[in-house]
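hey
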């Protein structure tokens, strides 16, 4: 979608957010699933150039350090007032560090939460930054709560409300902070004995998610709506199957040169995945 001539209004923001959600996948695969080397960016241009090459040119998807940052740059070029914020993703780890980069966009003095990069239950469109316990977007349901000045972004999963992340509206993050957060987070994930493998993208039927464990190499693809998770594919246990799933479900074409977690595995094991539950 060409940016020239677009107006910095709510309808444009909603259209761009929705277009991103349905066309550009969230992906942490480069950190966990193949041979990625973390890098500390020395300036904003280097960070943006790297993310643009990965997300747009190579079509590999990206994390919040890539997609939300690129989305912010696009919005600023149109003329939107955009602020960086920092969230703590507590869904799978209540003690997690504040490492999720999110955006606040102000339109006519009204702030909106913008986040095109939460893999497990992200937004389809921006939401007004105010307490609301009933937000419906297509097949997804969300809540925004506030306690002691701290916002909680909640999503309904399998018929239950779960807090995805918390954040402070007043916290204004700088790009230099993002450079360090990105480097520290990827270094941390690479140093772990195991890590969570994830990719996701919205489709007409549901949020399609690839979820797995890099140690046990148990992966599944499921489709998420507010009411249920429907498993689409199991037994992703060879390099060829993994690359096929990335391409078929998420449009991510893993280069043959990339060494994945399944490198060297040739035979198939048809046992059920060992993942205890889908979060």
């Amino acid at each position: 979608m060409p940016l020239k001539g677009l107006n910095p209004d709510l309808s444009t923001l909603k259209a761009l957010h929705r277009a991103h959600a349905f066309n550009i996948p969230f992906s942490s695969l480069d950190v966990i699933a193949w041979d990625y080397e973390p890098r500390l960016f020395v300036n904003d241009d280097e960070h943006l150039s790297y993310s643009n090459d990965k997300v747009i040119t190579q079509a590999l998807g990206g994390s919040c350090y890539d997609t939300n940052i690129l989305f912010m740059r696009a919005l600023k070029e149109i003329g939107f007032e955009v602020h960086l914020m920092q969230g703590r993703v507590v869904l799978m780890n209540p003690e997690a560090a504040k490492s999720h980069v999110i955006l606040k966009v102000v339109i006519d003095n009204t702030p909106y939460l913008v986040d095109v990069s939460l893999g497990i239950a992200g937004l389809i469109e921006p939401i007004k930054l105010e307490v609301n316990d009933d937000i419906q977007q297509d097949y997804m349901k969300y809540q925004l709560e506030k306690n002691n000045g701290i916002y909680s972004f909640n999503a309904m999963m399998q018929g239950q409300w779960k807090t995805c992340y918390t954040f402070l509206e007043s916290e204004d993050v700088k790009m230099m902070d993002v450079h360090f957060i990105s480097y520290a987070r990827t270094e941390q994930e690479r140093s772990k004995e195991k890590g969570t493998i994830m990719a996701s993208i919205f489709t007409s039927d549901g949020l399609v998610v690839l979820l797995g464990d890099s140690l046990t190499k148990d992966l599944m693809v499921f489709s998420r709506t507010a009411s249920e998770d429907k498993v689409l594919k199991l037994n992703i246990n060879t390099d060829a199957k993994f690359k096929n799933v990335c391409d078929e479900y998420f449009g991510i074409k893993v280069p043959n040169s990339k060494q994945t977690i399944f490198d060297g595995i040739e035979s198939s094991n048809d046992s059920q995945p060992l993942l205890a539950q889908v979060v």
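Helices lie at 10-23, 29-32, 44-57, 64-78, 175-191, 239-250. The CA atoms of residues 193 and 215 lie 7 Å apart.
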